[in-house]
Amino acid sequence: MAIERNVIEPVAGVSNEIGFYLAEMNEVREQLREAVSDLTREQVAERAVEGAHSIGALVLHIGEAEWYWIECVIGGHKLTDEDKNSQFWDVLKDPEKFGRLNFSAEDCLRVVGEIREGARAKLASLNDDDLDGKLFHMERRENKYEFSLRWILHHLVDHEAQHKGQILMLKRLLTGHTKEF
User: Fold this and answer.
1) Could you give the CA distance from residue 17 to residue 132 in angstroms, rounded to a whole number?
2) Options 1.20.120.450, 2.130.10.10, 2.130.10.120, 3.40.50.300; CATH of 16-175
3) Beta strand 143-148 with 135-140: parallel, antiparallel or unpaired?
4) What is the pTM of this model?
5) Tell me, what's the pLDDT at 179?
């Protein structure tokens, strides 16, 4: 009998612990890819129930969050009008935006894949000492926050995993698909 081996190995090209976080992020991303890659363009854009977001919008939102945390919070990038006009920005705040994009599942996965490559490059400039030894700052709605890199990377894994669950539930509603992940 064959034994299926499941292990997490750190991603190469970054420090060891950051590599483990990236590996976890990649694991969840692969599960997301498996969940949406068989959907039609119509299914990706459809809202399963009134008030719900489309699956495609949720995939782009995952990318939006990752981009914001990596580029703006960690990288210090100041949000520009050009950023706000990107395909993924505010896709959940504007329920009609995703439909106007006319994206397929592969289009959505390409966008979030490009964001991940940018995140990997930015994280390669950091090291394991930065995980807890450096705080990143954010101001939002007159509140100030500090985050460790470890917390941010954990948050990104958790955020994508939660939305992946939401996407799987929406997929079941749209298609009756019952495959377990």
Assistant:
1) 11
2) 1.20.120.450
3) antiparallel
4) 0.93
5) 57
